[in-house]
């Protein structure tokens, strides 16, 4: 059984771990030095989690005490953030701890996180991704499309199904939330 639950402020330590993993470089590069998380351009995606408008989910597999993956979105204001589009468009991050990758957790997290975003009335979500990152396939599956290049990174946008242009894939509110082995605690959305 897999628990998907809101990312809350008490998950802050895990969110730093997730952001560290999300700073992806092509193999065989190791993870970046952890100190980079304190860089003003990086820490903005995780610091002080739980602000109004923050929206995120974590995955906790059966038998694990701590989350092993997260998909989170934050609206940054006034041009802040590498994936900034406008003040209303959250920037999305996703990461699964290395030993848990490739088991479908990222796909499930993204499906639920996008469903939650659309249900909240968010009209579009932005992200940036390294051109060589295989995560691009995951993003395309959920309706993200490259709209611009920032340095060599893809700036990708997905729109809410009702807005049009977005994929009607698993991120759709119409997607079946009752996949086998998935326990979804919707609860209050991350009171963030
Ligand atoms: C990207 C990430 C969150 C995906 O989570 P995951 O649990 O490993 O992925 P899943 O098992 O759910 O697979 C979903 C899809 O991801 C894509 N994918 C992501 N990483 C991949 C990899 N290393 N190799 C192959 N496919 C990969 C595939 O399209 C896959 O779909 P498929 O199995 O139908 O081909 C996870 O691999 C990760 O944390 N990677 C490092 C951090 C990162 O790159 N974050 C994104 C930064 S923009």
Give the helix/strand layout.
Elements: E1 2-6, H1 12-22, H2 40-43, E2 55-61, E3 69-74, E4 91-96, H3 105-119, E5 124-129, H4 135-141, E6 145-150, E7 153-159, E8 182-184
Parallel strand pairs: 1-8
Antiparallel strand pairs: 1-2, 2-3, 3-4, 5-7, 6-7
The structure holds coenzyme A.
Residues 21-22, 24, 94-96, 101-107, 129, 133-135, 137-138 line the site of coenzyme A (COA).
Task: Write up what this structure looks like.
A hairpin with a 2-residue loop joins strand 6 and strand 7. Helices cover 19% and strands 24% of the residues. The strands form two sheets. It has a five-stranded mixed beta sheet with strand order 4-3-2-1-8, sandwiched between helices. The chain has four helices and eight strands, in the order E-H-H-E-E-E-H-E-H-E-E-E. With 192 residues, it is of the alpha+beta class. Bound molecules: coenzyme A (COA). Coenzyme A (COA) binds next to helix 1, strand 4, helix 3 and helix 4.
Number of helical stretches of at least 4 residues: 4
Amino- and carboxy-terminal Cα gap: 26 Å
How many β-strand stretches?
8
Morphology call: globular
Mean pLDDT: 89
CATH class: Alpha Beta
Radius of gyration: 15 Å
Poorly predicted spans: 166-192
- Please give the domain count: 1
CATH architecture level-2 label = 3-Layer(aba) Sandwich
Strands ordered across the widest β-sheet? 4-3-2-1-8
CATH topological fold name: Aminopeptidase
User: In percent terms, what proportion of residues is strand?
Assistant: 15-25%
Order of helices and strands: EHHEEEHEHEEE
Please state the structural category. Answer: alpha+beta
Query: The biggest beta sheet, please?
Result: 5 strands, mixed
């Amino acid at each position: 059984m897999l628990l998907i639950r809101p990312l809350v402020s008490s998950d802050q330590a895990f969110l730093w771990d997730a952001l560290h993993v999300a700073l992806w470089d092509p193999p065989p590069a190791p993870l970046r030095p952890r100190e980079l998380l304190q860089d003003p351009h990086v820490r903005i995606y995780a610091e002080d989690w739980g602000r109004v408008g923050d929206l995120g989910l974590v995955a906790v597999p059966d038998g694990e005490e701590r989350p092993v993956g997260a998909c989170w979105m934050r609206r940054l204001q006034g041009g802040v953030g590498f994936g900034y589009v406008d003040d209303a468009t959250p920037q999305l991050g996703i990461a699964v701890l290395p030993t848990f990758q490739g088991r479908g957790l990222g796909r499930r997290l993204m499906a639920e996180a996008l469903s939650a975003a659309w249900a909240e009335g968010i009209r579009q979500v932005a992200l940036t991704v390294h051109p060589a990152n295989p995560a691009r396939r995951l993003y395309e599956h959920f309706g993200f499309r490259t709209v611009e290049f920032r340095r060599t990174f893809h700036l990708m946008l997905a729109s809410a199904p009702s807005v049009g242009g977005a994929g009607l894939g698993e991120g759709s509110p119409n997607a079946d939330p009752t996949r086998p082995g998935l326990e979804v605690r919707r609860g209050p959305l991350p009171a963030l």
